[in-house]
Design goal:
258 residues, alpha/beta, single chain
Length: 258
């Protein structure tokens, strides 16, 4: 199984517009963080996780020419507002692309993008819309696409829920603030963990801090942990130096084998 980090930043991205801090002006490419996106590959199956505003640029940078399905963690703008870029995969041939998302968010997505999910949605002359098959799931219900099986897991995200998943020895936690006790059992023993972490200290009401993410990784017993959803308050090399040996910051374009 292969994991590609397409985007590793928060909703602001890095550099932040108008900011001249050391991270935003850094020459280190690892400090340039587009909005959250992942690609999980198992054989010929490719699962795209989230569709951020920079999706087209991310797919080009990673040389991604096709995907098997899409997993939406939750409908916040930084995780879904690049969804129209999926039409590149469906405009000319092939069946509709499955889009997995929690059943609680199906209506939200249909209302937000009525031009391809609303009544009578159709492409106008000379144009196209993405052919997407909304595939609602319930929390913890096993899903399958191609060679890949994954179990969605809901996590508290302020007043909302954001969904990660476990597939094989990989655990993904997206935009979470805590891990429910019954979710610990589902994630214990993962070899590779991906988890959001904003910054050091200063607890946030809906996201893990770096210290909190490190504690979760230790609790789950992950052999390797990659921090993502990082802000401009953390510099890549400095963060890498301060983390335990089994934990490291991810960066856009990072590819690992699970």
């Amino acid at each position: 199984m292969r994991l590609t980090f397409l985007g590793t930043g928060t909703s602001f991205g890095v550099p932040v517009v108008g900011c001249s801090c050391p991270v935003c002006t850094s020459a280190d490419p690892r400090n340039r963080r587009s909005r959250h996106g992942l690609l999980v590959e198992d054989g010929d199956t490719r699962l795209l996780v989230d569709t951020p505003p920079e999706l087209r640029l991310q797919l080009l940078a990673a040389d991604v020419s096709d995907v098997s399905a899409v997993f939406i963690s939750h409908p916040h703008a930084d995780h879904v507002h690049g969804i129209d870029d999926l039409r590149a995969f469906t405009a000319y041939s092939g069946p509709a692309l499955p889009v997995f998302l929690a059943a609680e968010y199906e209506q939200v997505m249909r209302e937000r993008f009525p031009y391809f999910w609303g009544p009578g949605a159709a492409a106008g002359p000379g144009s196209s819309i993405p052919e997407l098959d909304l595939t609602p799931f319930e929390d913890r219900a096993l899903q399958k696409v191609g060679a890949l099986q994954f179990r969605p897991i809901g996590f508290p995200h302020g007043p909302f829920r954001s969904y990660g998943f476990r597939t094989g020895e990989l655990g993904v936690i997206v935009d979470a603030k805590s891990v429910p006790e019954d979710a610990v059992e589902l994630l214990e023993g993962v070899r590779v963990l991906v988890i959001n972490a904003l910054w050091w200290g200063n607890p946030h009401p809906s996201h893990f801090s770096i210290e909190e993410a490190v504690e979760v990784a230790s609790r789950l017993g992950a052999e390797r942990t990659f921090l993502t959803h990082l802000t401009h308050r953390v510099e890549h090399a400095d963060l890498a130096d301060k983390l335990p040996p089994s934990i490291e910051p991810a960066h856009d374009g990072l590819v690992i084998e699970v």
